[in-house]
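User: Some background: our group keeps a shared notebook of sequences we're curious about, and every so often someone picks one and asks for a predicted structure to add to the entry. Today it's my turn. The entry only has the sequence so far, pasted here. Could you supply the structure so I can complete it?
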Amino acid sequence: MNRTACMTTRTLLTTLMIGSVGTIASADAPKVLLEDNFTGTGNVAYEAWRLPADGPAAFYGRTQAKVDPAIDTPQQIGGNAVLQLDTYFPDDPGAAFHGAEMISKRVFARGGGISMEWRSRIDLTTVPAGVGGLVNGLFSYNVTRTDTGGLPVRDELDWELLTNEIVNGNNRPFTNTYSEEGFVGPTGDAAFISPGQDLGAFHNYRIDWKRDRVEWYRDDVLVRTETNRVPDDPMTVRANLWATDSGFSDAFDNALQTAATLGANQEIEAQVDFIKVKELGAAFDANLSTTRRSDNLLVDPSHVAPLTSPDSNFVGGWQTFSNAFATATPSFEGVTAFDGDNAAAKFFGSFFSGGDSVLIQRVEEQEGQVFDGKEFEATVRMLTPSADGIVGTQNIALTVVQFFDESFNLITEPFNPAPGIALNGEVATIIDGRIATTPTDTWVESNLAVKAPVGTHAIEIVHVFVQTANNFENGFIAEGGAVWIDGNELVMLTDILDADMDGDVDVDDLDLVLMSGGDADSTDPIDINQDGSITSQDALDWLTEYGSLPGDTNLDGEVDLIDLSALASNFDTAGDGWATGDFNGDGVVDLIDLSTLASNFGNSASAVPIPEPASAVLLGLAALALRRR
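Assistant: Of course. Here's the predicted structure to add to the notebook entry:
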């Protein structure tokens, strides 16, 4: 950081930072990203939930997850989502269980921190007496890449309710965390939570996923904190019920056996009362989200004519292929635009083999921007009309988010044995004609969070209409129907403390706040509390949110001899920012800074302050030590 260049804009913090109180900003409350209380009837909401995709990943432990949305979607009964495991699996009787899993269609980025909460129980009236072996998983999860051996690695955060714990009488819920870890050998960092509480009764299970740690709460009581394995990839939120194999020894019970016939089937249930995901509020102002969202990065997100033409790299506007139209008038077909402006995009099948209809837009870095390591969230709304819909066909409409380098080459996984797999990309099927319950005449929203890999220069949003039955039969088109697109968004997500917008929260951000000053608008990342001005209060609020306090040179949450030594080594010099003891950003380490440290010596961000005389004694000792330098 060039401190000299910044000196003209900084505010000198000439008053002690101890005990000063500033105006707390009034800002938007943290966003609720998902909230489902399952108060409806029938299937859980199409717009919010999906089943696992059929394939190897849908088999885990001794369980084949249910994958057919026509018959397998969890039901809403009595205000709960019911997850039902069958001991009989019709495709392989006597060899596997048939479990249930529901997966959020939304992919959630951490940003400055999010809270994920489930209220769930195992229905003991459905569990065979004295038999364990079942897991009610409440978790976040994603697999976005492979390791150097070409094997998939995952990020995951777990609450798991084990029927083994009911059988042994301990009733302890199980927790785990994975960060870039595989599926072979000992992975994760597991821990039971004691004391136990009745797993057959409803309890609230929450995970706060923060920038530097993960916290597990049961019924709003903090029961575990993890700082070593902290995932950083965007994840979906899930709930499931499955039977494990002997590889999960804490949960396995050989007494739980599959059924060889339908008549011998046992239906075992877990019930989920609600699932909620929201952004965390700041420690200094609960009404201020810890996540900042940029302005929309897309051009013509609402498809209102005249549209901007993209360049040859598809940057700066919508590029279309086949039967895709970047702007159309939905009212002509009885459709109301999502944005209310009577404009939207439209696409339908190409009717010829191998030719999907596509809309593409890429957003590239501007001068001074760096996409590497940044989190982004893409949002799109799609609608299929009842008068010309795709429900009942094999057609689907999906969105893809992927990354390109400076030469506009797709960034692919370097170690995946299958070539051409997009690194850190995401895909969402938004309108699925194969599912009878797909809503018509309704804008369905999809949100995909992604993290840009190293080397990213551009982000691509692709909307694709896939006509899987795109052949001629007896002289007419086999399957038709159209889908409308509107309300596109692409925003960058950053931590509220990331003042320099480099993707990391560290002392450089605090130094930038200290060296800045003056009025600010709502998009200024240096205005930590978003009160419209950059003052010493922003530095205090930065420290509060980070878990530190004035005088803490190494930001470890304590003011101790390590901090005093750092200050003493730089006393009466220009220093080099906070880490050297310049706590007020005036470009010199002096008695004002020493007084700040002395006033907090022996304190931690979470501890009761030490008596004032101890600080006074320290100040005297420090002054003596400094005179001897």
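Suggested note for the entry: Helices lie at 3-6, 69-72, 163-167, 507-514, 536-546, 561-569, 591-600, 612-627. The chain has a mean pLDDT of 89.
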